[in-house]
Amino acid sequence: MSTSSSTAVERDFKREFLKIFFIVFGVLVICFSIFFVKNQENNKYIIETLALNGSAEEGDALFKINCVGCHGITARGLVGPDLHSITQRLNDKEIIRQVTGGQTPPMPSFEIDPVNMSNLLKYLHSLE
Ligand code: HEC
């Protein structure tokens, strides 16, 4: 009697365990897929941006609208750091991530299309 009831409990336990296991597994698969898709989108954006040859003048105008409040009208720095010779310290991918990533508050993340991002990069390269 006692053995059969304990196997029933065991069976229930196994069933519960399997249920939880599959739920956790499912959630992990979903998270991984989202991460993978986001990563693909990011890479596509970076590849597209780097394939373009932007205009420094357009980038300058864009900078004056979006960035001068923190980096200063001549990009010499205010709240944000001086951006002269930034392209010697960070590569283009790192700069794209800095501008679009929003990972260093208070600098916000910018949603910039590849053409304008390329213009901004060209402008930053033009700063000595
Ligand atoms: C609200 C203020 C703010 C705005 C607007 C802003 N930034 Fe920033 N930015 C910062 C701050 C603060 C940092 C330093 C972040 C850190 O490293 O902690 C920074 C860092 C950077 C860096 C990296 C500098 C380094 O030395 O590593 C780059 C490149 C940059 N910003 C470019 C831009 C561009 C381009 C724009 C406009 C599209 C912009 N930022 C708009 C505040 C701002």
Q: Could you explain the architecture of this structure?
A:
With 128 residues, the protein is mainly alpha-helical. It folds into two domains: 1-51; 54-128, Cytochrome c-like domain (Cytochrome Bc1 Complex, Chain D, domain 2), CATH 1.10.760. The chain contains six helices and no strands. The chain binds heme C. The site of heme C has 20 residues, from helix 3 and helix 5.
CATH class of the largest domain: Mainly Alpha
CATH homolog superfamily of the largest domain: Cytochrome c-like domain
Bound molecules: heme C
Give the amount of beta strand, in percent: under 5%
* Large-scale geometry: elongated
Biggest beta-sheet profile: none
The CATH topology label of the largest domain is Cytochrome Bc1 Complex, Chain D, domain 2
Order of helices and strands: HHHHHH
Number of domains: 2
Low-confidence stretches: none
Average pLDDT reading: 93
Helix content: over 70%
Number of strands: 0
Key descriptive features of the protein:
Cytochrome Bc1 Complex, Chain D, domain 2; 2 domains; 6 helices; binds heme C; mainly alpha
Question: What layout of secondary structure does this protein have?
Answer:
Layout: H1 2-51, H2 56-66, H3 68-71, H4 86-89, H5 92-101, H6 114-126
The structure holds heme C.
Short structural summary:
Helix content is 72%, strand content 0%. The protein has 128 residues and is mostly helical.
